[in-house]
Amino acid sequence: MVGNEYVLGGDGSTYHAVVGAESDNNFFKTDIRFFYPDATNTGFFSVSEPKYGCTATAELTDLENFDGCVSNSAVRDKVARKLTVTLVDPMTQNTLRICYQGFQTSPDNVDEAKWKALYGTDPAALSYITCFILNIINAPVWPAETRVDNTIPINVAVGSTYVLPLTTRNLGSGDTSIFILADPGAPDGSRIMAMSQTGNLFVRNFEYTPTLSQAGMTSRVCFTASTVQKGAADPVDSDVLCYDFYVYVEQISWITNPCPYDVSGSVCRAQGVKVPTVGCKTELTTQVRGGDTKYYDIKLRMQKYPHCSNCYEKSTTKETDTPIGVA
Description:
This protein is mainly beta. The chain has helices at residues 63-68, 112-119; strands spanning 3-8, 14-22, 29-35, 45-47, 51-52, 78-86, 95-105, 130-137, 154-156, 162-169, 175-180, 190-192, 196-198, 201-208, 218-228, 236-237, 241-247, 253-255, 263-264, 267-268, 272-274, 287-289, 324-326.
């Protein structure tokens, strides 16, 4: 095999290749050696024992056929070996150059120096060296140290822009992009910004500015990171990363002391009717309190003649005793 081979990266992922060699005589024993010129760690590679009489013909490229072939000790000129590459996570190399060569070993009773002096060549023959590139296709990952917690909904406020940073790590070659999945999509008022890169980290921000009509709604947005590695035709995608966004609705409570209206349990009702008396000063102090999130500014305003089911809009008594509705 020559050129490029591909394997999907990941802890425990394996690549297998069967290589065979055949000599034109059986005087010397034939074998195969592997070497890895660029590898910084040769622990990924393991080579099976030679199987004689088993060659890497078309039918033996099937690994099951190789594993099922029984070595014949009487055969010396035909041999096959199986290479296994076991990957770890993460891989620091995304391309591995693998080379192999067929060779003969002379018997112990052959004086190689005398042979060469007599015949002008070494007694054992060597084949050409053949190499190929094993490309490790690593799916991009969402690093835990940069990932915003997605186990609980993210609260966002109406009119405020929430920025969610999305960071993915590319363990291989090529460029990585981050996308929003069409299903379930993204809410109105959201957008995804341009990609940026620092080393093997790729970053893209998602922004969401909810509108008033979205108050109380929860929207799910899912993302994927996709890489097309150098030399590969198809992309490889990360795990899907999803977030829930809840558009926060403020919970307002009234604080009045003493309560000027009817008390329901221990709660002072937020509205009622005060009947002033001519010549007497009527005073009411009212406070309002929001939730602990402090997403919104809270303001008080007086509403004249409010429209509500239990408010008076016109006098039902004498003009001097006109009730005032408060809401």
